[in-house]
Specification:
By secondary structure, this protein is α+β, with helices and mostly antiparallel strands. Helix content is 25%, strand content 37%. It contains 4 helices and 7 strands; from the N terminus they run E-E-E-H-E-E-E-E-H-H-H. The strands form 2 sheets. A 4-stranded antiparallel β-sheet has the order 4-5-6-7. It has a 3-stranded antiparallel β-sheet with strand order 1-2-3. A hairpin with a 5-residue loop joins strand 5 and strand 6. The longest helix is centred in the C-terminal third of the chain and has 14 residues.
Length: 130
C-alpha cells in the first residue's frame, strides 16, 4: 500500500529507437483499462535505478522492494492524474545496458535525428494518452 492505495500490477513494455536515443518509450497497461505511453529520458531512467533523478512530471529513485529486493520507483504526473510505479532494477538495468550497447551515451547527439527528436518532445508534452 502507498498512502492507503493498494498496489496493483501494471504491464510495462519498454521500447528504444536508435533514431531517438535520448528517449525510451514505455507503455503501461493496467490489468483492466487502456494503456498509456510515456516518453522518458533514458539517462533519467538509468540514474533513477541508483539515485534520485528527474524533476517535475517524471522522477525516479531507488527503494527497497516489498520482498527486500532493490527496486526503483518511477513517478509520472500529468494533468489527469499521477502514478508511482515500482520497477525491478536488475531487469531494467539489463534492458538499458542493451540500449547503451546500440547507442552509447557519448554518441547520442551524433546519432540523433534532431527534427524527429524535437517533434517527439512537442507531441503532447512528450506523452500520449493525456
Amino acid at each position: 500500500m502507498l498512502d492507503g492505495v493498494p498496489l496493483l500490477p501494471v504491464r510495462a513494455e519498454f521500447r528504444f529507437e536508435v533514431s531517438s536515443p535520448m528517449l525510451v518509450s514505455v507503455t503501461f497497461t493496467p490489468w483492466r483499462g487502456q494503456g498509456v505511453t510515456w516518453r522518458i529520458s533514458r539517462e533519467l531512467l538509468y540514474l533513477g535505478l541508483y539515485e534520485e533523478s528527474g524533476e517535475g512530471d517524471v522522477q525516479a529513485w531507488p527503494v527497497r522492494g516489498e520482498a527486500g529486493e532493490t527496486a526503483s520507483w518511477l513517478l509520472l504526473e500529468s494533468k489527469t492524474g499521477s502514478a508511482v510505479l515500482e520497477l525491478p532494477v536488475a531487469e531494467v538495468e539489463e534492458w538499458l545496458d542493451a540500449t547503451y550497447e546500440l547507442v552509447p551515451a557519448e554518441a547520442e547527439a551524433h546519432t540523433l535525428d534532431w527534427d524527429a527528436f524535437l517533434g517527439e518532445l512537442q507531441d503532447v508534452g512528450g506523452r500520449s494518452g493525456d
